[in-house]
Amino acid sequence: MSILHRSQSSHTPAAPASRQVDLFVCGDTHCNSKVGLLAPDLLDDEGAPISQSRSQAWLWARWLDYVALAKAAKTAGRRVFVLALGDLVDCNIHDGFQLHEPLNQAVMLRIAEASMRPLFSLADRVFILRGTPAHTGGAGYLEELLAQACGPQVVHDSEHGTASWWLLEAEICGVRLVAQHHPGTNSMRPWTQGGAANRLAAMVVTAYYGQAWAPKLALFGHIHHSEDSLDNHAVRAITNRAWKLADGYDHRGGRGYMVREVGGLIVHLDAGAYSVEKVTYTLPKPQPWRE
């Protein structure tokens, strides 16, 4: 059985549902990785099935649970926006291992579009950020192609003429936020956890200091674990969890024994106020081997 943990923090009392936007923040799905998000019943170019592993079946069930929260928001009369923080597709140019499809980009995009569709199809607006070129191709072109293929709800970057974004600066329901895939800093050890979020918050405060438009909330992906600066600075910085399980890179880095958590955020927005809900699922650990 998986463990679902939902935590919520608020800056002001919740607003009436009818005027509220729920921003579903997800990313690092690494679709096409054998430990990433994978929709069932997909075929490759020869018609052979692309099968889920047991852990991917677990991951898909948790993804549908997260999607159900978006459906509930729609039923309650709230608008649903999606912010996809990048690394939605994976071509893994580092070594090409642990991929369902190592070369055919059409199949990679088919996997990603089918896997993201349950959430994207519910959304009134979708923002797709570009991730790491090693995973999403040079300049993140696979995510640009994905954004072009995902329908009219995808909000384009009109300044650059693209369907995807490197950096998103947005104001939704009076709340100013900034988002990008790479945070530029990380906290890799248990005794340093939280430090990256505090550094990020200070970095964003400094970058926007004295400007007419400055964010209150900064959202990042890439590092696959959650950190939150809360109210330590004038900007709240959060790094989001991934929808990908441990791969060879994690094991080589000595992190194979660590608890693997996946999930996303729901940012409730209305009239200049916001609250952040963290939706977390913990992969059950197998029983130790015994003789």
Structure in words:
Residues 13-18 have low confidence and may be disordered. This protein is of the alpha/beta class and 291 residues long. It is globular and about 55 Å long. 24% of the residues lie in helices and 24% in strands. The chain has one domain: 4-Layer Sandwich (Purple Acid Phosphatase, chain A, domain 2), CATH 3.60.21.10. The chain has a six-stranded mixed sheet with strand order 1-13-12-2-5-6. A five-stranded mixed sheet has the order 7-8-9-11-10, covered by helices on one side.
What distinguishing features does this structure have?
single chain, 291 residues, alpha/beta, Purple Acid Phosphatase, chain A, domain 2, 6-stranded mixed β-sheet, 5-stranded mixed β-sheet, globular
**CATH homologous superfamily, by name?**
Metallo-dependent phosphatases
Main sheet: strand order: 1-13-12-2-5-6
Order of helices and strands: EEEEHEHEHHEEHEEEHEE
Strand content: 15-25%
Q: What does the average pLDDT come to?
A: 93
Helix content, binned percent: 10-25%
CATH class: Alpha Beta
Work out the number of β strands: 13
Indicate the low-confidence ranges by residue numbers: 13-18
Radius of gyration: 18 Å
Predict the CATH topology.
Purple Acid Phosphatase, chain A, domain 2
Alpha plus pi helix count = 6
> Number of folding domains?
1
Distance between the termini: 25 Å
Biggest β-sheet, characterized? 6 strands, mixed
Instruction: Tell the overall outline.
Output: globular
CATH architecture: 4-Layer Sandwich
Query: What structural class do you assign from the helix and strand content?
Result: alpha/beta
